[in-house]
Write a structure and sequence with these properties.
By secondary structure, the protein is of the alpha+beta class. The protein has one domain: Transcriptional Co-activator pc4, Chain A. Helix content is 30%, strand content 30%. A five-stranded antiparallel sheet has the order 2-1-8-7-6. A three-stranded antiparallel sheet has the order 3-4-5. Strand 7 (76-83) and strand 8 form a beta hairpin. The relative contact order is 0.15. The mean pLDDT is 86.
Length: 138
């Protein structure tokens, strides 16, 4: 990815970034900025934001994603992050974001995320039941 200082799209510098998608957290994407540097910043946001941001501006508040106006082969996807500590404007090649979104969609189809949460919820409920049962674990 590239970071755009002072929210200015023209001047950029590279920032090592790792996007991670986990089936055990099917609604989320983890973005690790400064990956491997020892000074990492980690954001977690909806994978739908990346998918939707390829078509139109998506998100409210802390994370907003949109596709730039460049020709297809040079297109970039912009991600604006905001928190009480500060804000940042980043961008990535559109084809890289699209490849990530498609790969995540092959792991867990969009609309079926809930089915990956059910085993975890069943285990959680069983544990709660065990803990709440009189004479249960000490």
């Amino acid at each position: 990815m590239r970071i755009h200082p002072e929210d200015h799209e023209a001047f950029t510098q590279p920032v090592r970034t790792r996007l991670t998608y986990r089936v055990c957290d099917p609604y989320a994407v983890e973005a690790r900025f400064g990956a491997g540097s020892g000074n990492e910043t980690v954001w977690t946001f909806s994978r739908d934001l990346l998918r939707d941001g390829l078509q139109k501006e998506a998100g409210l508040g802390d994370v907003i994603v949109w596709r730039g106006n460049e020709p297809r082969q040079q297109a970039r996807v912009f991600i604006r992050l905001a928190s009480p500590e500060g804000k940042a404007l980043l961008s990535a090649a559109e084809h890289d974001v699209r490849a990530f979104v498609e790969a995540a969609g092959r792991l867990v189809r969009y609309g079926l995320e809930h089915s990956y949460l059910q085993p975890m919820m069943d285990s959680f409920e069983a544990t709660l039941g065990e803990l709440a049962r009189p004479g249960g674990r000490d």
